[in-house]
Amino acid sequence: MSGRGDYEQRDGDEEEEEEEGLDEHDYKHQKDALLFAIEVSDSMMKKPPPSDDKKADKDSALSAALKCAYQVMQQRIISSPKDMMGILLFGTEKTKFLDESNLGYPHCYVYTPLDVPDAVDVKKLRSLVEDDEDSEEVLKPSAEKVNLKDVLFCANQIFTTKAPNFGSRRLFIITDNDDPHSGNKKENESAAVRAKDLYDLSVIIDLYPITREDEKFDFTKFYDDIIYRNPAAEVTQPNRVNSSKSGDGLTLLHALVSNINGKQTPKRAYFSNCPFEIGPGFQISVKGYNIIQKQVPARTCYVWLDGEKAQIAVSETSRLASDSARTVETGDIKKAYKFGGEYVYFSPEEQKSLKDFGNPIIRVIGFKDRSLLKFWMSIDKSIFIYPSEEHYIGSTRVFTALWQKLLKSKKIGIAWHIARKNGNPKLVAIIPSSAQKNEGTPGEYLPAGMWLFPIPFADDVREPPETTCVRTTDELTDKMNLIVRQLQLPSATYNPAKYPNPALQWHYKILQALALDDEVPETPDDATVPKYKAIHKRCGGYIEEWSKVADEALGRHEEHKCIKREAEDDDDEPRPAKKSRITVSKNANGDSGSALNDAALKKRIKAGDLSKLKVAELKHILAGRGLDNKGLKADLVDRLEQWGEDNL
Amino acid sequence: MADKEATVYIVDLGSSMGDCHNGRTESDLDWSMRYAWDKISATVAASRKTWNIGVIGVRTDETVNPLAEDDGYNNISVLQELGPMNMTAMESLQSKIKPSGTSCGDSVSAIVVAIQMIEKLTKKLKYKRNIILITDGEAPVDPDDDNLNDIADKIKDTQIQLTVLGVDFDDSEFGIKEEDKTAQKATNERLLRQLAGRSGGNFGTIAEAIAELDIPRLKQTRPFKSYDGPLTLGDPQVDPRAMSISVERYFKTHKQAPPPASNVILKTDHASGSQSAQTRDVDRMQGVEPTGGAFASVKNARAYKVNDPDTPGGKKDVEFDCLAKGYQYGSTAVHISESEFNITKIETAKCFTIVGFIHQDKYGPFLNMGSTGLTVAQKLNDAAAMKLSSLIHSLHELESYAVARIVTKDGKEPQLLLLAPYIDVDFECLYDIPLPFAEDVRSYHFPPLDKVITVAGATLTKHRHLPTQDLIETMSEYVDAMDISTFGLDDEGQRTQEYAPVEDVYCPPVHRINQVVRHRVIYADQPVPPIPPILLKYAQPNRNLVEKARSALEDLIEVAEVKQVPPKAKGKRQRDAIKPISGLDVDALLQTPENKRTKIDPNNAVPEFKQMVDNAEDIKTFEEATKQIGHIIRQLITDSLGDVNYDRAIEVMGVLRESLINIEEPGFYNSFIKDLKKRLLSGELGGDRRELWWQVKGAKLGLIDQNMSDVSKVTPEEVAEFYKK
């Protein structure tokens, strides 16, 4: 009935269910646990030589690593609030394992226990990073060498006990030492055995080496023995990351952050090994990924304040029959559709069959020119697909051949697609993408591959409202062209990375301030607000010219229209007086975009006869001034009078 | 849409309608009623009070109508007065629609009755008025031409749309010609066709109307304004010269969701006696139940718990009333008082303003976050229309899009939109789609498709994952052969049109559910009908197209050499190959004295169990490993304070189960899990462990059946039985 963990909670909210990834191993939690293992040593703590260059590195490798971990922690609280993170320092003089245990691993210090971070963790790490407040005196290297075997087993125990049954567990090692045991074979071997344990525990080790100047990080000395190819990753992916170092205008911190950010989110497939039928009887397999996913603030929760510490109350849902308030067992519940006030009911088998449009598939039904996919044909975000060799050997080369052909010939595939069992079928366009890079950072922000782009159904298309078409003149368009040319975004492209979601950031900024007892900030950063001053500086003149030309063109247009109307009026019976009055007042004030110009409005307000206008006219006037135009007539009049007082 | 409607159906119930004709196994009446019921039930479903339906039977045994006194109005019965339709009315109607014993009754007279009914209800008000006559035309009709003309005029005057649908009436366009028609029927067809023609109505054969039932009907929605105000460039507050155009924004696309199903349960008073017998009863009725009937809706009730180390389960219930609202920051609960609850909401003012412009070819549509909007100039505002037009034309000429920030109302979250120009003969607008923010794009890394980079960092251009020139060429030929840009048929039957255009693709789940629900309402005792072919039209490539591309596909298949991985080989024994990047043989290391493990360490259970199984030489070792790990699992559970160790136990069980499926020893797992279930439910492992059993069931860690492992002796039915209780 209740509290059956994650498995049952999905039930009910279908929309949400759609968002969740498909479980490959359904007994595992779809959660991620990320443990940083950061080496503390003299070389890691060495500060870069002082420099007058403002952009020069000021961080030691250790402090860059900790800062990076702090950034990741803050990001994860926003992007994956249910996932865990921890920090393990190694090579420290001090030793500390999880609180409740005496069992220690020499020179391993659990600085932030692996858990969903809380305010205390964030604050503690922040003071270490920003204020150098090392209250626990941990940043002191030990005199004797740390043995990697201990570090790895320590991590093993942390994962085993703190993140049991997690679908994704990762260990990020940050170090500048490519030979921790100085070539001691026995020690290397015991570390390799412990690394194999981690592998068998499904923990993925990622190494983030740090180098200085012309040093090389030699993987073959030791680290190649403990790092495995990621079994979940695509076949040919090497697990080596470029070493982070400062230079080329990048600080060490920058280099590290961009290296780690690329891997920070665990790669979860939205669907796995979906058959991709390129033609009848010709299949390969692909995996799907939700690369585009709307990030929203976590929902509100209920807090219990009567205890010593504020606690989040966990809710358990049970189902009650509305007639008797008795608890209902899942097996007794039937699904019914409301139909004209009645319930139309289907047996569970029938209900199931209604949703059955076949097994998961991407079935190509043809190819089209790219130009036939119109801009307006958008209904939902796209899913990224990438080949997988798991079910069909040769998938990758076939996928690549198709990808190249579509790119080259500017074509798209059209396919019938069912993402999961009992999922709703859609028609999708298969669009190829080439990799897109962010300037100044390594790696791409959008990968090369293909996308399943949902095409709207006939049912999803709405009729446009009725409009009268008034065309621009060539002269006016030319004036506008000047403005459009002036105000291009950098490299004439939209780069999402430049625009953090202001509402989301503000939400967490305030929460963070409240949680950490900081001062609540005054104004949000909002990169989406246009740079008005720059716009006016660059285009103020052009806009003015454009307005002038528009007024002239409009004058001619009105004249033309009047002549035409008079001609019509001669034949037709005269229009009702009221209607023509509106048109007249409108003609007199073509440019303010409202049915009554400000002067006329002022006059009316003074005379107090706004209420003589019709509701429709009032609404129109309000709308023209960007005001709310809903409500009773008296409200509309009030609102307009108020506006007049404030603005005229 | 919200228009008022008055529709009268006139149904011929004469005895001849009870017969089957022209090879049909369904009586003419049942067949024709498919159309009428479908239309009537659609009205019921809409449950609009302003949609009125009346039903008249012609050639009924009785005569019940307001004009019964007059001549020529016998054997006509008003079966349902003109009024709003509901299920009860429909059910009572269903019992009345039966072939009668008579063959007399003038269907044109019935039209007169219908006109009267409509006039009485609608008076001079604004209504959509319809009369739909369904008949087989076998009964004599008063052929007086003047009379017919009068009636046609009356229909016109009253603004009624008359539709005559005849059983097997001839229709050359639809392709029906009944050869052995009776003389009476031929005459009637001619008369009715005249009447419909003169009154400006429709005349057709019922087969066509029935065929059209499968074509999904699109729901009309009123244009919805999502923004109404100025579109600006620059800020009028900063500089009064800023550009400002009064615009209105509407939806262009909006997802139509399938009708939702509600959770219901049999009411308690209905459940008296044996509940299962009752349920079966309802099943047999193939239920349509009034909302006040046997079903009650199901509501969700929530109980709240917090951690409390002092209580036995580690958790205690708390009253909802003593909880405060808040948000989670990591695992910290941040409580925000009611009065300050908006503190985390960003303060915004309504606006729609351009941020900048980009090139059209530098944007990929896969960044789109959702559905399309449409922006036009404010109604009746020529100035705004002309100004907006200049922006639209400029974007078009410069092949650019505009990026704009929109806040639809004060206090709403800002959203970035991409605006694109659209110019048609007499319509112009800006289309827009929502753009992703930085947080909405996940950074996932994938190896490049067009090259292979080895571990050592070398770049390969020839590899089994890279297509050969041959493959590239055959793929290209196949894609070109399968082109459907102009595969659609035009009016002349030529393939010049786009195939599968948006307006021809209907949302299958929406119409499937509408179809079966209507069907169930009309034919409560029949099984669910099959999916109409029109909904599956684009589920497969067109047969002619496939035929055309056949040889290209055959070449492609040959060159591609794709091989399916046999299901068995997946995962099985692949672990032998697992080595770190250096290729170090760790398994061999594990055999050396200093690393050798004989007994599984409970603290390192998963890895050591896997290694023991991997390196096992004989079945005895498997058995031993299973025994040891089983013991560890039971110990974990016994030691668990509350549920703290449950996840660990589940993880180990999952690994155990997977391993034993891989090495084809499901029997070991099955006996383990049977034994564990018994112990969990008996409370032998440190107390009440039913909660864990729920979790085991939820994680599907029960018996391994034959579908999962060929060598299992357990059937799927036994598994289902095992999960019960």
TrEMBL record, chain A:
Give the SAP domain ranges. Answer: 610-644
Question: InterPro entries of this UniProt entry?
Answer: DNA_bd_Ku70/Ku80 (IPR006164), Ku70 (IPR006165), Ku70_bridge/pillars_dom_sf (IPR027388), KU70_core_dom (IPR047087), Ku_C (IPR005160), Ku_N (IPR005161), SAP_dom (IPR003034), SAP_dom_sf (IPR036361)
- Entry's EC annotation: 3.6.4.12
Enumerate composition-biased segments (Basic and acidic residues): 1-10, 49-58
* Disordered, as annotated region: 1-29, 39-58, 565-595
The annotated regions of Polar residues compositional bias extend over 582-595
- Look up the domain of life of the source: Eukaryota
Query: What role does it play?
Result: Single-stranded DNA-dependent ATP-dependent helicase. Involved in non-homologous end joining (NHEJ) DNA double strand break repair. DNA-binding is sequence-independent but has a high affinity to nicks in double-stranded DNA and to the ends of duplex DNA. Binds to naturally occurring chromosomal ends, and therefore provides chromosomal end protection. Required also for telomere recombination to repair telomeric ends in the absence of telomerase. KU70, of the KU70/KU80 heterodimer, binds to the stem loop of TLC1, the RNA component of telomerase. Involved in telomere maintenance.
Name of the featured protein: ATP-dependent DNA helicase II subunit 1
Please tell me the species this chain comes from. Pseudomassariella vexata
Automatic annotation (TrEMBL), chain B:
Q: What is its main location?
A: nucleus
What are the EC numbers?
Answer: 3.6.4.12
Please give the SMART domains that the UniProt record associates with this protein. Ku78
A single Gene Ontology CC term: Ku70:Ku80 complex
Q: Which Pfam families match?
A: Ku, Ku_N, Ku_PK_bind
GO biological process: one example: double-strand break repair via nonhomologous end joining
Keyword DNA repair listed? The answer is yes
List the InterPro entries: DNA_bd_Ku70/Ku80, Ku80, Ku_C_sf, Ku_N, Ku_PK_bind, SPOC-like_C_dom_sf, VWF_A, vWFA_dom_sf
Compartment(s) where it occurs, according to its Swiss-Prot or TrEMBL record: Chromosome, Telomere; Nucleus
Question: Domain of life of the organism in this record?
Answer: Eukaryota
Q: Which GO terms describe its molecular function?
A: ATP binding; ATP hydrolysis activity; damaged DNA binding; DNA helicase activity; double-stranded DNA binding; telomeric DNA binding
* UniProt keyword Ubl conjugation present: no
Give me the reactions it catalyses: ATP + H2O = ADP + phosphate + H(+)
Where the record annotates domain VWFA, the positions are 6-227
Per its UniProt record, what SUPFAM superfamilies does this chain match?
Answer: C-terminal domain of Ku80 (SSF101420), SPOC domain-like (SSF100939), vWA-like (SSF53300)
Keyword terms, alphabetized? ATP-binding, Chromosome, DNA damage, DNA recombination, DNA repair, DNA-binding, Helicase, Hydrolase, Nucleotide-binding, Nucleus, Telomere
Briefly state the protein's biological role.
Answer: Single-stranded DNA-dependent ATP-dependent helicase. Involved in non-homologous end joining (NHEJ) DNA double strand break repair. DNA-binding is sequence-independent but has a high affinity to nicks in double-stranded DNA and to the ends of duplex DNA. Binds to naturally occurring chromosomal ends, and therefore provides chromosomal end protection. Required also for telomere recombination to repair telomeric ends in the absence of telomerase. KU70, of the KU70/KU80 heterodimer, binds to the stem loop of TLC1, the RNA component of telomerase. Involved in telomere maintenance.
Instruction: Give the protein family.
Output: Belongs to the ku80 family.
| The protein, known as | ATP-dependent DNA helicase II subunit 2
Recorded source organism is Pseudomassariella vexata
